[in-house]
Amino acid sequence: MNKTMRILSVPTLALGALAMTAAPALADHASGSYSSTLGQLNGTTGSGSVTVDVTGTAAAVNLQVSGLAETFMDGPYPHVQHIHGKAAGECPTDGSSDANGDGIVSTTEGAPNYGEIVTTLGTSGATGPEEGLNLELAGMGGNYSIQRTIELSQDAQDAIAAGTAVVVVHGLDPATAGVSEEVFNSPSDLDPNLPLGATSPALCGPLVASQMGAMPVGGADTGAALEQNGSSVAMLALGGGLALAAAAGGVYVVRRRTAGTA
User: Fold this and answer.
1) CA torsion sign, 104 to 111 to 137 to 187?
2) How many CB atoms lie within 10 A of CB 190?
3) What residues have CB less than 8 Å from 198, skipping those under 6 apart?
4) What is the largest CA-CA distance in the chain?
5) Closest by alpha carbon to 51, among 226, 229, 216, 228?
6) Average pLDDT of span 79-105
């Protein structure tokens, strides 16, 4: 890659916990194997695949991602990813879903297609919607994998069983997004302290029932920690969108630069 991403004055991020409720009793009606090949959005040149094997209320997740934006601030780019649900169960399209015509399909512009977060697919720790932009749990760099077993919330199981569950990976590369730095760095639809490009969807794919009895082996190189997690997941009603809060002040500024240039 000739160009990399540089983000200056980076705040610590967390997804605000809005309208949290206690986790309900869980059903196991989604039991089975589900998978998706993740398609590209917003000029993304990367690729990904995911398998979710559900047994009762537990899900063995294997997410493989490659070719996404690699760096910011001379470190690995943090990519957050989630299972979305409660909507049409499909991915947006670059043209028709770009409601304001700025050249980027934002997270909220895609929400009528894929819906709200029902599970955060982090590298470790909690998996509730409130962890949706916790960068400490993000996949790092352009190539990574997440392999862990998590506990599914009722919302996640309902979405998977209904065929409306969609996996979305966020974080665009300014070198391939096809928009100016001004547009890429315009205030995010999720929080004005964040750049639009860094919070917008890059890869997307609906989860569909498959006959696979085991998760795929190998895939993208990873620096992500792998964890077996049995923590319960709280639900968060986001009303078809997301709400992000910066834990500290500051504004992202994203710039393209050629290799070897400060």
Assistant:
1) positive
2) 24
3) 7, 170, 171, 172, 188, 252, 254
4) 54
5) 216
6) 96
Instruction: Give the residue among 55, 40, 46, 52 at the shortest CA–CA distance from 85.
Output: 52
CATH architecture under which domain 3-229+243-258 falls: Sandwich (2.60)
Half-sphere exposure of 138 (CA within 13 A, CB side): 25
The two tokens of residue 57 are 């209320």
Secondary structure class of 107 (helix, strand, coil): helix
Q: Domain spans of the chain? A: 3-229+243-258
Report the pLDDT value the prediction gives residue 254, as an integer from 0 to 100.
52
C-alpha 83/C-alpha 10 separation (Å) is: 26
Look at residues 83, 19, 49 and name the one whose alpha carbon lies nearest to residue 238. Answer: 19
- The answer, yes or no, to whether residue 73 has pLDDT greater than 90, is no
Tens of pLDDT along 7-22? 333 333 333 332 233 3
Q: Which of 95, 114, 99 is nearest to 203 (CA)?
A: 114
What's the one-letter identity of residue 142? G
Residue with tokens 């589900």: 34
Phi-psi region of 193 (alpha: psi -120 to 50; beta: other; left: phi over 0): alpha
Q: What does DSSP assign to residue 185?
A: T
Q: What is the mean pLDDT of the chain?
A: 77
Token code pair at residue 7: 């983000």
Return phi, psi of residue 78, to 5°.
Answer: -85, 120
For a pLDDT cut of 70, what percent of the chain falls above it? Answer: 69
